[in-house]
Specification:
- This protein has about 325 residues and is α+β, with helices and mostly antiparallel strands.
- It folds into three domains: about 80 residues, Malate/L-lactate/L-sulpholactate dehydrogenase, four-helix barrel (Hypothetical Oxidoreductase Yiak, Chain: A, domain 1); about 160 residues, Ribosomal Protein S8, Chain: A, domain 1, CATH 3.30.1370; about 40 residues, Wheat Germ Agglutinin (Isolectin 2), domain 1 (2-Layer Sandwich), CATH 3.30.60.50.
- Helices cover about 45% and strands about 15% of the residues.
- It is built from eleven helices and 13 strands.
- A seven-stranded mixed β-sheet has the order 2-3-4-12-5-8-9, sandwiched between helices. It has a two-stranded antiparallel ribbon with strand order 1-13.
- The longest helix is centred in the first third of the chain and has 19 residues.
- This is Malate/lactate/ureidoglycolate dehydrogenase, LDH2 family.
- It comes from Bosea lathyri.
- Keywords: Oxidoreductase.
Length: about 325
């Protein structure tokens, strides 16, 4: 079914309020879930709301905290997320390091004991729209097989980058896996086959069955190089946050485990960024104006497609499956 963005926002917010989430935090969490839906990322959208509520009920998520902040020097903020809602803890940390970076030039938040961040492009665009550059890293359960391996050993370990540009920031958001586990779950919910290049089953064989893929391992993007990047990001985050690593990471895919992955945000505030914003925008337009290769209608910049999808969904409605919406409505009416 197609629903207006405001209807999705209203019902999802009500569901979180009924679960005991403070109003401002509920609205922030829903903003992120809805933005994922608007941008065509349902794997990070409202289908996650029921698990968020269940985690609150199981007392492995604390809906009322922004985390504890300790400055370890002028530019490094250590954050104990206190099992808070991922976006709430993350935004509080970002606000703190954005302010600090205006005087120091750069500031880092190393976040432990925090829940799932959701779509990381949202944070990158938020910071870049305020005139600073963001590099964001996060880890996950071991869901990706090593290059040449058969078992899940490494996280999907996404990276997001936001850079100020005119008329809008340059933003990328990508997992270091070929796809996210959220996409696998989304295909499983829809009973849609996946390309066999996406994942291995529990025996280490390529599979087109998303249900079998959930018990197996996702492929790294970019073969050996993507595997190396994902591994490097995981080690970097763990070294800064003292969070769990590899197959010891828990809590982003279930409703009963404390989440023990790590997040790192690096904010850079440089005078050159403001001066270059218009030039970067012109450069991106020059790339878009390039002659498309055979089989391509146009040349795009990362984020172009999602912005186009967003405009269409604001106009025509947000597609949500009947099963997911029925579950959300029941939570809002509980």
């Amino acid at each position: 079914m197609d629903l207006s963005a405001e209807e999705v926002r209203r019902v999802c917010t009500t569901a979180l309020l009924r679960a005991g989430v403070p109003d401002a935090y509920a609205r922030l969490q829903v903003d992120l879930l809805l933005e994922a839906e608007l941008r065509g990322r349902p794997s990070h959208g409202v289908l996650r709301l029921a698990r968020i509520v269940e985690r609150i009920r199981n007392q492995v998520t604390n809906p009322s905290t922004t985390g504890e902040h300790i400055w370890e020097g002028q530019a490094l903020l250590a954050v104990d997320g206190q099992a808070g809602l991922g976006p709430v803890v993350a935004c509080a940390a970002l606000d703190a390091i954005e302010e600090r970076a205006r005087s120091t030039g750069i500031a880092i938040a190393a976040i432990s004991n925090n829940n799932h961040l959701g779509m990381m492009a949202w944070y990158a665009e938020r910071t870049a729209s305020r005139g600073s550059t963001l590099l964001a890293l996060s880890t996950s359960e071991a869901l990706v097989h090593a290059w040449g391996g058969r078992r899940a050993m490494v996280g999907t370990n996404p990276i997001a980058i936001g850079v100020p540009a005119v008329p809008r920031p340059f933003v990328i958001d990508m997992a270091t896996s070929l796809v996210s586990m959220g996409q696998i779950h989304d295909h499983a919910r829809r009973d849609e086959a996946i390309p066999p290049s996406w994942a291995l089953d529990r025996d280490g064989n390529p599979t087109s069955d998303p249900h079998a893929a959930r018990d197996g391992a996702i492929a790294p993007f970019g073969e050996a190089k993507g595997y190396a990047l994902g591994l490097a990001f995981e080690i970097l985050v763990a070294s800064l946050t003292a969070s769990a690593i590899g197959r010891d990471v828990r809590g982003t895919l279930d409703a009963t485990e404390i989440c023990n992955k790590g997040d790192v945000f690096i904010v850079i505030h440089a005078s050159a960024s403001g001066a270059m914003a218009r030039g970067i925008g012109a450069y991106l337009d020059a790339i878009r104006a390039d002659i498309p290769a055979d089989g391509f209608r146009s040349v795009a910049i990362p984020g172009d497609r999602s912005r186009s999808v967003r405009e269409a969904r604001l106009r025509d409605g947000v597609p949500v499956t009947d099963a997911v919406w029925t579950e959300i409505v029941a939570l809002a009416e509980a």
